[in-house]
Write a structure and sequence with these properties.
The complex is a heterodimer of chains A (about 290) and B (about 220). Helices cover about 65% and strands about 10% of the residues of chain A. Chain A is of the alpha+beta class. Chain A folds into 2 domains: about 1-50 and about 165-290, no CATH class; about 65-140. In chain A, helix 1 (about 20-55) packs across helix 7. Chain B has about 220 residues and is α/β, with parallel strands linked by helices. Chain B has 7 helices and 10 strands. Chain B has helices at about 45-50, 75-80, 100-110, 115-125, 140-155, 170-185, 200-205, and strands at about 5-10, 20-25, 30-35, 60-65, 65, 85, 160-165, 190-195, 210-215, 215-220. The chains are: A alpha+beta (about 290), B alpha/beta (about 220). The interface between A and B is medium-sized, with 20 and 24 residues. Bound molecules: adenosine-5'-triphosphate (ATP) and magnesium ion. The site of adenosine-5'-triphosphate has 13 residues of chain B, from helix 1.
Chain lengths: ~290, ~220
C-alpha cells in the first residue's frame, strides 16, 4: 500500500480529495461489466436464433385434412425448389412438446390439432415464401406456413433495442468516468499549483508534470477497477449458475463465452487507459494557459 | 550581445497598476550585478521576468539571444534549465528530502540516476548538509533550507544565477561562505544577478549596482 501510493514529485498520493475516485471507477467498471455481459449474451442469442430458423420452417396442415390430403401436401412441398426435405412431426414428438402444459396421459387423436410438417431448406432464404403459401393453398385450403419470423422478429427487435440501450449505458459510464478524472485532475492542478510552479522553474516540461498525474490516475483506476471487475465476475458466475438450473428453452443461454470473460478482465485496463489519457489531456490543456 | 536584454519592459499583475516601468537592462555573459531597492520596489517582480515565470506586459525581453516575449511555451523549459534561482522564500518541495529537492533540476532534465546521486551528494556535503540528505525541509532551520535552495539553484551548472535576498536568513559566517561561492561561480563564468536590500553586500563585494525604486530601474553606486 505504501509503495503502491508512493508520492511522486507532485505529492498527489497524499491528497485525501482523491480517495473517492477508486470507488467511482470501481463502480463504473462493475456496472460496465454487467452491461457488457447483457449485450454479449443478447448478441450470441440473436446469432443462434437466426441460425436455427433460417434453414427450417414449419407448415401447419389443418386438422380437417385426411392422410391422403397430407400426402399431397408433402409431395407438393418436396417439389418446391429450395426444399431439401419435408416430414410430418410424429404424434409422439408433439406429445412430448405439449407434456409440460397438458400432462402426458394425453389422447392426441382426440384433440383437433393441426399436423405439423418440418421443412428443411437448402440455404437461408432459398425460398419464395409467399409463392409457396399460395401454391399450398391450392392443394389444401387453410395451410399456414410458419417460418419463425412471426415470433422471431419481435424478439429480435427487442433484443436489438436492449443492445442499443446497453451501448448507451456504456457510453454514459465512460462519460461519467471521464468527467470524474477531469474533475480530480483539475483539483490536483489547483491544490499543487506551487509545486508545479517549482517543477516548471527547474525546467520541467508540461509532459513531465502530466506524467505525474498520469501515474496517479493509472493507480487509482486499477485500485478501483480490479475489485470492480472481480465483483462483477462473481455476480456473473452466480447468475450463470442460477440460470443453468432454469428450464426455459426460449431464454437465451445466460452464460458468457470466453470472449466475454476476456472483455470483463480487460475492463480495468480500459478504465486505466481512459483515466490516463484524460489526465494527460486535462493537464496539458490547463498548463497551456500558463505564461 | 548580452546574455539578457530588456528593452522598454513594463509589467503589471492582472489589471492592477504597472509595477515595473520602462526597464532597459543588459547583462553580459560573466557579469555580476547587485539589484538594490526598498521593499515593494519590484525586485522580485523583475527577477520573475528573468527566470521566465512571467512575460512582460509590454516591451521586449531576450534571453540567451532568443526573444522570449512571444516565444512558444514549449521553448521555455530548455531556457529555464540554463537559469538557477534562489528564491526569497526558497520554494522547496516539503514532501521531498533535501536530496530529492536538489536532484530535481537534473531529474526533469533526464540525467542518469548514478550521476544525479554523485553530483547531489557532493554538493550537499559542500554546503554543509552532508548529514541532512534525507531530511525534508519542514524539519530544517531557515539557514539549512536556504542552503538546500542554493544547492538546487547551482546543481545544473546554470549560465545565469539569480538570487532573491539570498543572505536574508543566514548568520554572518554562512552568508560569507555563500557570497564566496557566488564569487567562485562567477569566476568560472556564471552570470550573477542578486537582489537584496542589504546595502553592505555591494560594499564588501565590488560589483556594479542597479537600483530599483518604485518600478524604475537606474544604475547607481
Ligand atoms: N503576485 C502578485 N500579484 C499582484 N501584485 C503583486 C504580486 N507580486 C508583487 N506584487 C506587487 O508588485 C509590487 C512589487 O512587488 P515585489 O515583490 O516585486 O517587490 P520587492 O522589491 O521584491 O519587495 P521585497 O523587498 O519586500 O521582497 C508590490 O507593490 C506588490 O504589491
Ligand atoms: Mg521580493
Amino acid at each position: 500500500m505504501a509503495l503502491w501510493l508512493r508520492n511522486g514529485d507532485v505529492p498527489l498520493a497524499s491528497d485525501s480529495s482523491t480517495r473517492f475516485v477508486p470507488w467511482i471507477i470501481g463502480t463504473m467498471v462493475f456496472l460496465s461489466a454487467l452491461v457488457l455481459a447483457v449485450a454479449l449474451v443478447l448478441e450470441s442469442a440473436i446469432d443462434r436464433w437466426q441460425l436455427a430458423h433460417s434453414v427450417q420452417l414449419t407448415v401447419e396442415v389443418p386438422p380437417s385434412a385426411d392422410s391422403a390430403a397430407l400426402e399431397r401436401v408433402l409431395a407438393a412441398l418436396r417439389g418446391v425448389p429450395g426444399v431439401v426435405d419435408a416430414a410430418p412431426v410424429s404424434d409422439q414428438h408433439i406429445a412430448q412438446l405439449l407434456a409440460p402444459w397438458i400432462g402426458d396421459d394425453l389422447e392426441l387423436a382426440s384433440l383437433p390439432l393441426p399436423t405439423l410438417v418440418d421443412v428443411r431448406l437448402a440455404a437461408p432464404g432459398a425460398l419464395d415464401l409467399a409463392a409457396m403459401e399460395s401454391l399450398l393453398g391450392t392443394v389444401q385450403p387453410g395451410i399456414r406456413v410458419d417460418d419463425g419470423r412471426r415470433w422471431l422478429e419481435p424478439v429480435r427487435a427487442t433484443a436489438g433495442a436492449l443492445q442499443v440501450v446497453s451501448g448507451l449505458v456504456l457510453l454514459l459510464i465512460v462519460a461519467a468516468s471521464i468527467v470524474t478524472v477531469i474533475f480530480m485532475t483539475r483539483t490536483g492542478l489547483a491544490v499543487h499549483r506551487d509545486t508545479i510552479a517549482v517543477l516548471h522553474q527547474v525546467g520541467a516540461r508540461d509532459s513531465f508534470v502530466a506524467g505525474q498525474f498520469q501515474r496517479h490516475a493509472f493507480r487509482l483506476a486499477l485500485w478501483g477497477g480490479v475489485p470492480g471487475a472481480l465483483l462483477a465476475a462473481l455476480c456473473l458466475v452466480v447468475i450463470g449458475r442460477l440460470a443453468g438450473g432454469l428450464d426455459a428453452p426460449l431464454l437465451p443461454e445466460l452464460a458468457l463465452g470466453t470472449g466475454g470473460w476476456i472483455a470483463v478482465a480487460v475492463l480495468p485496463l480500459i478504465a486505466a487507459a481512459i483515466s490516463v489519457a484524460t489526465a494527460r489531456l486535462t493537464v496539458l490543456a490547463t498548463l497551456a494557459g500558463l505564461p | 550581445m548580452g546574455l539578457v536584454r530588456f528593452e522598454n519592459v513594463g509589467l503589471r499583475y492582472g489589471s492592477g497598476p504597472e509595477v515595473l516601468h520602462d526597464i532597459d537592462l543588459v547583462l553580459d555573459p560573466g557579469s555580476y550585478h547587485f539589484l538594490l531597492g526598498p521593499s515593494g520596489a519590484g525586485k522580485s517582480s523583475l527577477l520573475s521576468l528573468l527566470y521566465l515565470a512571467r512575460r512582460p506586459t509590454r516591451g521586449m525581453v531576450s534571453m540567451f539571444e532568443r526573444d522570449v516575449t512571444a516565444a512558444p511555451r514549449e521553448s521555455l523549459p530548455e531556457l529555464r534549465r540554463r537559469i538557477g534561482v534562489v528564491f526569497q522564500d526558497y520554494h522547496l518541495l516539503d514532501h521531498l528530502t533535501a536530496f530529492d529537492n536538489v536532484a530535481l533540476p537534473l531529474q526533469v532534465a533526464g540525467v542518469p540516476a548514478q550521476r544525479i546521486r554523485n553530483d547531489v551528494m557532493e554538493l550537499l556535503a559542500w554546503v554543509g548538509l552532508g548529514d541532512k540528505v534525507d531530511v525534508a525541509p519542514p524539519f530544517m532551520s531557515g539557514g539549512e533550507k536556504q542552503r538546500v535552495a542554493v544547492a538546487r539553484a547551482v546543481i545544473g551548472q546554470p549560465d545565469l544565477l539569480l538570487a532573491d535576498e539570498p543572505t536574508g536568513n543566514l548568520d554572518e559566517a554562512m552568508a560569507e561562505r555563500l557570497m564566496r561561492l557566488f564569487e567562485q561561480l562567477n569566476r568560472m563564468g556564471t552570470t550573477l544577478f542578486i537582489a537584496t536590500h542589504d546595502t553592505s553586500l555591494p560594499r564588501r563585494f565590488a560589483h556594479p549596482v542597479l537600483r530599483l525604486d518604485n518600478g524604475h530601474l537606474m544604475a547607481g553606486g
